[in-house]
Every structure is written in structure tokens, then in C-alpha cells.
Amino acid sequence: MKYERDVGRSPIGEHSQLKRERDAGDRLLSLGASALPPRPWRRNGIPPTAVDLTQFALWKSEDLEPDDLLGALSLLAAARAETEGVEIGLIFSARNAGLTWAKIAEAMRFHSPQACQQHVSRLSARRSEGP
Questions:
Q1: Taking phi first (over 0 means left), then psi (-120 to 50 degrees means alpha), and beta for anything else, what does residue 109 get?
Q2: Residue 67 CB: number of other CB atoms within 10 A?
Q3: Which of 10, 18, 70, 105 shows a CA-CA span of 20 to 30 A to 25?
Q4: Are 72 and 28 in contact (CB under 8 A)?
Q5: In which region does residue 96 sit, left (phi positive, over 0), alpha (psi from -120 to 50) or beta (all else)?
Q6: pLDDT grade for 17, boundaries at 50, 70 and 90
Q7: d(CA 50, CA 59)
Q8: Does a structural domain hold residue 2?
Q9: 25 confidence band (pLDDT: 50, 70, 90)
Q10: Distance (Å, rounded) from C-alpha 88 to C-alpha 99?
């Protein structure tokens, strides 16, 4: 799985984080996350996302070992990046549908359209920085 990272991490730290995430994902899949029903908007054969895996871990948290919970926690940065991608996609879709920044800001509980636009700019910049 490829996930976004904070800029400034060392390649060695980055590699170990990727391994932790991969191991955590594999472990949660082996504990039953692989049996999650496919999402209708996702093509067949696509494995659960980091969001799916972290939600699965929370759902099964009483049955998980502490190390499994630590693994799930290591997936949170990836889940956050996925969620931010959905957020940006929905906002761009709303703008393409003709919704104003004022309407979008109100729906997202921002105090002003400018604050909403600045938020989107920050999210977009973070995503374009890459790993």
C-alpha cells in the first residue's frame, strides 16, 4: 500500500513506517478485514483501504492484541490522507456542480468562504508535496 507521508522524514524512517503499515494491514486482513464486503464504488479485487482497516480495528478492538492496536494506529496517517482526498474530491465536485464557496463553507461549518478556500489550498498543497 502506498500512503502519503509527512515531508522531512528520513528515508530510513520512511521505510520502517511503510513496513509497519504493510505489516499492520496484512495482520488486520488476516484477522477478518479481508472478509469485509466490497464497496459498490470500488472495482472488484481492490483490497480494503486504510480507512476500512482502521474502522475494522476499532470495531474488533476488544478482540485485538495490543500490538494489533498499535499496528492500526500506524495506519491513521494513511487513513487521514485518504479522507483528505475524498474531501478535496467532494469539494471540487461541488464547485463543478456550480455551488458557491459560501454554500460549501456553510455546509462544512467554516466561518467564511475564504477560510474554506484556504483550507482547500492547504489540503491540495499537502497532497501535491507527496511522500
A1: left
A2: 11
A3: 10
A4: yes
A5: alpha
A6: confident
A7: 14
A8: no
A9: very high
A10: 14
In a domain, 6, yes or no: no
Q: Is residue 82 part of a domain?
A: yes
Residue 53 has a CB neighbour count (10 Å cut-off) of 27
50-108: pLDDT as tens digits: 999 999 999 999 999 999 999 999 999 999 999 999 999 999 999 999 999 999 999 99
Containing domain of residue 53, as a range? 11-129
In a domain, 54, yes or no: yes
What is the end-to-end Cα distance of the chain in Å, rounded? Answer: 13
The pTM is what?
A: 0.78
Task: Indicate left, alpha or beta for 32 from its phi (over 0: left) and psi (-120 to 50: alpha).
Answer: left
> Rounded to an integer, what is the distance from CA 71 to the centroid of its chain?
15
Q: Judge whether 8 and 131 are in contact, CB under 8 Å.
A: no
What phi and psi, each to the nearest 5 degrees, are found at residue 74? -65, -20
Long-range contacts of the stretch 5-9 (C-beta < 8 A, 24+):
5/77, 5/131, 6/77, 7/129
